């Protein structure tokens, strides 16, 4: 088969075939160590020397806690899913790489709390993530679905999409332009005033960004409808021109990368992602040292600081803030504050920014953080991290149950905005404001044709030669490579040891 040599290695001593994905899964602990080392290298070599003036300092962390961070990452790795078989597992690993690992190390460099408190933070984060990891041992629920007829479904989507974009264009008709990254707040600040004065437009904008545009892009890629992908991508660019939200501009790239990486995944996605991130740390750090402001410098800031370092720094900031200020007991969540009074006047992110004196050209910045920080620490302290780990595991289980009939190359790209938001905002904001609940409901009503996994054939590698007469009905030879045979097995049929 074409490309066979790139996927498999032959063992010299045993003459057996070793699958590369299996090798990658086995080597995942080494990948995690490389990722941790790469992250710390980037922080010490470029992030802290360059951005220490905004609080990303290096105060020589406690060596024992630093080593413990590596050990805890390895421990959690052994309990985590090594193969992507559910949509939420991609979100889990993004939380692992972008929130959990930074939270193990960045607070140690900042030293806003004593060693005991920092140790408790490390243990709490590991406990919260462990609850999420162990939840994957629970079988998914068989949720009843109500698939809509295909023509009706896409007609409704099309009408809603056209009306929503027309309303958006009309509302921002005198304000739309593509702002440079250095000028986003000049667009974002007046856009917030417009959206606060027009709540309906705010919901429309969010629905386009998190549901309709990702749906068009994911469907266009999975079903080879490039026009739909381009339409969804142009929709995200249009949204960026109204509010300068950088996530919207990055959304088409993230959707495309998720699709391409999962399309031919054979079980090594997690390790490959870790290796890519580790390589990015090394390359960007090497290029950024001594670089002047420009494309390389800006890319290094976006990846090394904004995506990976800030989530860890915010864990330390929120821990210190709520050691000195009252907890919210989730009163920062819109519905819950009807029952429990919120002790803060500003949003939680703005309160934290005010505490540390973080201001920008247009006033207070918004120190949004992951659900572990905002809902967990902000709500109940370090024990809240465990509570949010349990609640997030429940949400992931519900999501996986709703999306069980879809191929990952479709369902995961559709969830791209959710993946990006969950590492940076409250879980409740992701559920309601960023429309995760709407996406789960959408999975339940999509036409049967979209449910590509329900009738898809699975491919299995059989080492021993197989005779045609030994194959059960419906099982066909899907390809050969030397002595190996690939079988195409219809969904629902058991994959036995044929020809053994």
Describe this structure in words.
- It is a single chain.
- It contains 20 helices and 7 strands.
- The protein is mainly alpha-helical and about 500 residues long.
- Among the domains are: about 5-145 and about 265-395, no CATH class; about 455-490, no CATH class.
- The strands form 3 sheets. It has a 3-stranded antiparallel sheet, with no helix packed on it.
- The longest helix is centred in the middle third of the chain and has 30 residues, at about 295-325.
- The two termini are about 20 Å apart.
Q: How can the largest sheet be summarized?
A: 3 strands, antiparallel
Proportion of helical residues = 55-70%
List segments where confidence is low: pLDDT < 50 over at least 5 consecutive residues. 1-17, 453-500
Shape: globular
Spatially, the strands of the biggest sheet line up as 5-7-6
Write down the Rg. 24 Å
What proportion strand?
Answer: 5-15%
Total count of strands: 7
How far is the N terminus from the C terminus? Answer: 22 Å
**Protein structure class:** mainly alpha
User: Helix and strand string, N-terminal first?
Assistant: HEEHHHHHHHHHHHHHEEHHHHHHEEE
Q: Treating each run of at least 4 consecutive H or I residues as one helix, how many helices?
A: 20
Mean pLDDT: 85
């Amino acid at each position: 088969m074409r490309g066979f040599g790139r996927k498999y290695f032959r063992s010299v001593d045993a003459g057996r075939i070793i699958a590369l994905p299996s090798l990658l899964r086995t080597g995942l602990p080494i990948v995690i160590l490389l990722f941790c080392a790469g992250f710390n290298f980037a922080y010490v070599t470029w992030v802290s020397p360059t951005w220490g003036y905004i609080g990303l300092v290096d105060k020589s962390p406690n060596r024992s806690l630093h080593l413990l961070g590596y050990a805890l990452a390895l421990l959690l790795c052994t309990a985590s899913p090594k193969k992507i078989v559910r949509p939420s597992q991609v979100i889990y690993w993004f939380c692992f790489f972008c929130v959990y690992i930074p939270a193990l190390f960045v607070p140690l460099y900042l030293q806003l709390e004593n060693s005991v408190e920092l140790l408790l933070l490390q243990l709490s984060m590991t406990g919260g993530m462990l609850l999420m990891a162990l939840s994957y041992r629970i079988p998914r629920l068989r949720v009843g679905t109500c698939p809509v007829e295909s023509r009706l479904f896409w007609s409704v989507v099309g009408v809603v999409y056209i009306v929503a974009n027309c309303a958006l264009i009309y509302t921002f008709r005198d304000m739309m332009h593509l702002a440079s990254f250095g000028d986003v707040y000049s667009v974002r600040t007046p856009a917030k005033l417009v959206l606060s004065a027009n709540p309906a437009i705010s919901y429309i904008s969010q629905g386009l960004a998190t549901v309709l545009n990702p749906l068009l892009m994911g469907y266009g890629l999975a079903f080879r409808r490039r026009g739909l992908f381009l339409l969804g991508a142009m929709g995200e660019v249009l949204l960026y021109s109204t509010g300068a939200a950088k996530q919207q501009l990055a959304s088409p790239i993230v959707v495309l990368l998720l699709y391409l990486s999962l399309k031919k995944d054979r079980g090594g996605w997690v390790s490959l992602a870790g290796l890519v991130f580790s390589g990015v740390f090394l390359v960007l750090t090497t290029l950024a040292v001594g670089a002047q402001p420009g494309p390389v410098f800006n890319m290094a800031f976006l990846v090394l600081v904004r995506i990976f370092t800030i989530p860890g720094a915010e864990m330390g900031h929120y821990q210190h803030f709520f050691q000195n200020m009252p907890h919210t007991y989730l009163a920062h969540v819109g519905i819950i504050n009807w029952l429990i009074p919120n002790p803060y006047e500003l949003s939680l992110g703005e309160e934290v920014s005010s505490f540390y004196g973080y201001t920008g050209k247009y006033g207070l910045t918004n120190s949004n953080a992951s659900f572990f920080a905002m809902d967990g620490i902000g709500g109940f302290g370090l024990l809240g991290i465990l509570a949010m780990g349990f609640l997030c595991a429940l949400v992931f289980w519900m999501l996986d149950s709703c999306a069980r009939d879809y191929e990952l190359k479709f369902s995961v790209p559709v969830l791209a905005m959710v993946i990006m938001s969950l590492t940076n905002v409250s879980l409740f904001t992701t559920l309601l404001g960023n429309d995760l609940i709407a996406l789960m409901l959408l999975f339940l009503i999509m036409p049967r044709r979209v449910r590509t996994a329900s009738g898809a054939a699975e491919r299995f590698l059989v080492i021993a030669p197989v005779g045609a007469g030994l194959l059960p009905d419906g099982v066909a030879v899907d390809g050969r490579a030397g002595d190996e045979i690939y079988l195409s097995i219809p969904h629902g049929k058991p994959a036995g040891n044929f020809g053994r």
